[in-house]
């Protein structure tokens, strides 16, 4: 999905980084909520780490997913 070079020199693998970033961007969660969800899966991460991941990978994830969204029509109809 995202270039592998973006994930170079990170402690966690790509999937562990992308999962909380997606959760935070998709659902109305606080960083601590995301930390708790990861803790349930046995992954210990600080909320400041998730904040940095969202700042770094969020814009790239957004641009890559926007092109796959269906465009809304400008036409509208009254039933």
From TrEMBL:
<dbReference type="InterPro" id="IPR052183">
    <property type="entry name" value="IS_Transposase"/>
</dbReference>
<protein>
    <submittedName>
        <fullName>Transposase, IS6 family</fullName>
    </submittedName>
</protein>
């Amino acid at each position: 999905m995202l270039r592998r070079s973006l994930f170079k020199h990170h402690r966690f693998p790509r999937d562990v980084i992308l999962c909380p970033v997606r959760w935070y961007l998709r659902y109305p969660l606080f960083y601590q909520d995301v930390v708790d969800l990861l803790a349930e899966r046995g992954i210990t991460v600080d909320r400041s780490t998730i904040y940095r991941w969202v700042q770094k990978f969020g814009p790239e994830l957004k641009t890559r997913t926007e092109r796959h969204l269906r465009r809304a029509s400008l036409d509208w109809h009254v039933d």
